[in-house]
Amino acid sequence: xxxxxxxxxxxxxxxxxxxxxxxxxxxxxxxxxxxxxxxxxxxxxxxxxxxxxxxxxxxxxxxxxxxxxxxxxxxxxxxxxxxxxxxxxxxxxxxxxxxxxxxxxxxxxxxxxxxxxxxxxxxxxxxxxxxxxxxxxxxxxxxxxxxxxxxxxxxxxxxxxxxxxxxxxxxxxxxxxxxxxxxxxxxxxxxxxxxxxxxxxxxxxxxxxxxxxxxxxxxxxxxxxxxxxxxxxxxxxxxxxxxxxxxxxxxxxxxxxxxxxxxxxxxxxxxxxxxxxxxxxxxxxxxxxxxxxxxxxxxxxxxxxxxxxxxxxxxxxxxxxxxxxxxxxxxxxx
Length: 334
Fold this sequence. Notes:
The protein is mainly beta. The protein contains four helices and 15 strands.
C-alpha cells in the first residue's frame, strides 16, 4: 500500500468509525404507531396492517428511501397486543442500508374504567450494510477510475440484536407515552472496530375529539392534535400538529423542529419542515400522502420529502361493531 492510499484509507476508516446513524423518521408518525413505540402493538380493534414509504430530499444524488411495514393484533382473552415490524432504510450512492425485523409484545392494564396502561417490549434483528464498489475514492479519480481504497476495507455488512421498550397511558380522548430504542447499544461498525448505536428516546401524546350533530350524523367529523418528540445522541426534534377528518377525507398540517436554536450549533435555528397532509378513507382502508416543505437552510435545494402511507383494519362487520362498543383505542384512528 503506497502512502497516499494509506492516508485515504485511514481518513475514510476514521470517518466511518465515528459516524453515528440516526433512525429514519416519518412525517405521518400517527400512521406508523408501532414504529414509534411497541406499546402501540394491538391498539387497533382487531388486526391492523400498515405500510409507509418515504422519499427524503429527492433532489440530492443517492436518495434517502425509508420503508416501514407493520402488522399487529389484539388478543382480548389475555389483554395483550402482539406486533411484527419490518423497516428498511437506504441512504446515499453507496447504498448504506439498514434492515430490521422486530417482534413486539404489549400488555394492557385497566387502571380504572376506560383508563389504561400498556408496558411493552421489542426484540429485533438488524442487518447494516454498505456497497463500497459504488463509492468513488480520491485515488480512483487520480488513477482514472481503477479499483481504489475500498479494496482494503473489511466488512460489507454486520448483524446484531436490538432491544426497545415503551409505556403508553390512554383514555378514550387522550394518550401519552414514551419509548426507548437501542437499549443494548449494539455495535454497528462495518470496519471491525466499535461504534455503538446511540440510544433513542421519544415521548408522544395527543388528543382526539368528535363532532356529532343530527346534520352530520352519517359523516362524523373528528379533530386530532398530536406531538412526537425524539432525541438521539445530541440531536432532537419535535413534530407538532394535527388533522381534521370528515369521512371519507382528512387533511392536516404539521411542523417539525423546535422553535429555538440548536443547542449543539450556536446561531442555527432548529427548524426542519412544514408537512401538508391529505388522505382518503375507503371502507377499512386509509390512504395518506404528505409533502414536507423544507424550511431549514436546505430550503430550495433538497426537494422536500414525499411520503405515502396505507393502513387497513382486518375485521368482519359484526366483529368490528362489537369491538367498537367495548374497545378503547388510545390514539388517532390510524
